[in-house]
Amino acid sequence: MLSLTMLFWATVVSGFISFWWQSDKIKGLALSFVYQYCKDQNLQLLDQTMVLKGLWPCRDDQGILRLRRRYGFEFTSTGQERYEGIISLAGMRMLSLDLDAHIIPDDIEH
Predict the structure, then answer these.
(1) Interatomic CA distance for residues 44 and 88, integer angstroms
(2) What pLDDT, in 10s, does the model give residues 46-77?
(3) In the chain, how many domains are there?
Protein backbone atom coordinates (compact mmCIF):
# COMPACT_ATOMS: atom_id res chain seq x y z
CA MET A 1 0.00 0.00 0.00
CA LEU A 2 1.29 3.45 -0.89
CA SER A 3 1.87 5.83 1.94
CA LEU A 4 0.62 9.39 1.78
CA THR A 5 4.21 10.67 1.70
CA MET A 6 5.09 8.48 -1.28
CA LEU A 7 1.96 9.63 -3.12
CA PHE A 8 2.84 13.27 -2.39
CA TRP A 9 6.38 12.91 -3.77
CA ALA A 10 5.17 11.02 -6.83
CA THR A 11 2.77 13.89 -7.56
CA VAL A 12 5.52 16.50 -7.08
CA VAL A 13 7.92 14.65 -9.38
CA SER A 14 5.30 14.08 -12.09
CA GLY A 15 4.29 17.76 -11.87
CA PHE A 16 7.91 18.83 -12.27
CA ILE A 17 8.41 16.55 -15.27
CA SER A 18 5.20 17.83 -16.87
CA PHE A 19 6.27 21.46 -16.32
CA TRP A 20 9.73 20.80 -17.75
CA TRP A 21 8.29 19.06 -20.82
CA GLN A 22 5.80 21.89 -21.49
CA SER A 23 8.53 24.50 -20.97
CA ASP A 24 10.80 22.75 -23.46
CA LYS A 25 8.00 22.72 -26.03
CA ILE A 26 7.34 26.45 -25.51
CA LYS A 27 11.06 27.22 -25.74
CA GLY A 28 11.15 25.41 -29.10
CA LEU A 29 8.16 27.45 -30.24
CA ALA A 30 9.90 30.69 -29.21
CA LEU A 31 13.01 29.58 -31.11
CA SER A 32 10.94 28.97 -34.25
CA PHE A 33 9.30 32.43 -33.94
CA VAL A 34 12.71 34.09 -33.62
CA TYR A 35 14.28 32.02 -36.39
CA GLN A 36 11.48 32.92 -38.82
CA TYR A 37 11.62 36.61 -37.87
CA CYS A 38 15.40 36.71 -38.35
CA LYS A 39 15.06 34.97 -41.70
CA ASP A 40 12.40 37.47 -42.84
CA GLN A 41 14.55 40.43 -41.74
CA ASN A 42 17.78 39.07 -43.31
CA LEU A 43 19.36 38.55 -39.87
CA GLN A 44 21.22 35.54 -38.51
CA LEU A 45 20.24 33.92 -35.22
CA LEU A 46 23.45 33.05 -33.38
CA ASP A 47 24.09 29.82 -31.49
CA GLN A 48 20.45 28.67 -31.94
CA THR A 49 19.98 29.16 -28.18
CA MET A 50 17.31 30.78 -26.06
CA VAL A 51 18.01 31.76 -22.45
CA LEU A 52 15.13 32.03 -20.00
CA LYS A 53 15.20 35.58 -18.58
CA GLY A 54 11.97 35.54 -16.59
CA LEU A 55 8.94 33.47 -15.67
CA TRP A 56 5.83 34.79 -13.93
CA PRO A 57 2.04 34.38 -13.96
CA CYS A 58 -0.16 36.70 -16.03
CA ARG A 59 -3.68 36.78 -17.43
CA ASP A 60 -4.36 36.63 -21.16
CA ASP A 61 -7.08 38.52 -23.07
CA GLN A 62 -9.74 36.06 -21.92
CA GLY A 63 -8.66 36.32 -18.28
CA ILE A 64 -7.09 32.85 -18.22
CA LEU A 65 -4.03 32.49 -16.00
CA ARG A 66 -0.91 31.74 -18.08
CA LEU A 67 2.81 31.69 -17.50
CA ARG A 68 4.63 34.57 -19.15
CA ARG A 69 8.13 33.67 -20.27
CA ARG A 70 10.89 35.94 -21.53
CA TYR A 71 13.75 34.45 -23.51
CA GLY A 72 16.95 36.18 -24.55
CA PHE A 73 18.87 35.39 -27.72
CA GLU A 74 21.69 36.80 -29.83
CA PHE A 75 21.66 37.69 -33.50
CA THR A 76 23.83 39.43 -36.05
CA SER A 77 23.05 41.57 -39.06
CA THR A 78 26.55 41.85 -40.50
CA GLY A 79 28.27 38.69 -39.33
CA GLN A 80 30.70 40.71 -37.19
CA GLU A 81 28.67 42.30 -34.39
CA ARG A 82 26.52 40.47 -31.83
CA TYR A 83 23.23 42.00 -30.75
CA GLU A 84 20.68 40.88 -28.19
CA GLY A 85 16.97 40.30 -28.51
CA ILE A 86 14.10 39.40 -26.17
CA ILE A 87 10.95 37.45 -26.99
CA SER A 88 7.98 37.32 -24.60
CA LEU A 89 5.29 34.64 -24.66
CA ALA A 90 2.12 34.12 -22.64
CA GLY A 91 1.42 30.43 -22.81
CA MET A 92 2.04 29.56 -26.47
CA ARG A 93 1.21 33.03 -27.82
CA MET A 94 3.94 35.52 -28.70
CA LEU A 95 3.46 38.88 -26.99
CA SER A 96 6.49 40.78 -28.22
CA LEU A 97 9.84 40.47 -29.94
CA ASP A 98 12.34 43.24 -29.22
CA LEU A 99 15.76 43.65 -30.81
CA ASP A 100 18.70 45.87 -29.89
CA ALA A 101 19.47 48.65 -32.33
CA HIS A 102 21.52 47.11 -35.12
CA ILE A 103 22.89 47.79 -38.58
CA ILE A 104 20.26 47.05 -41.19
CA PRO A 105 21.78 44.78 -43.84
CA ASP A 106 21.45 45.55 -47.53
CA ASP A 107 19.11 43.23 -49.39
CA ILE A 108 21.25 41.34 -51.86
CA GLU A 109 19.38 40.19 -54.94
CA HIS A 110 20.83 37.20 -56.76
Answers:
(1) 19
(2) 988 899 999 999 998 888 999 999 999 999 98
(3) 1
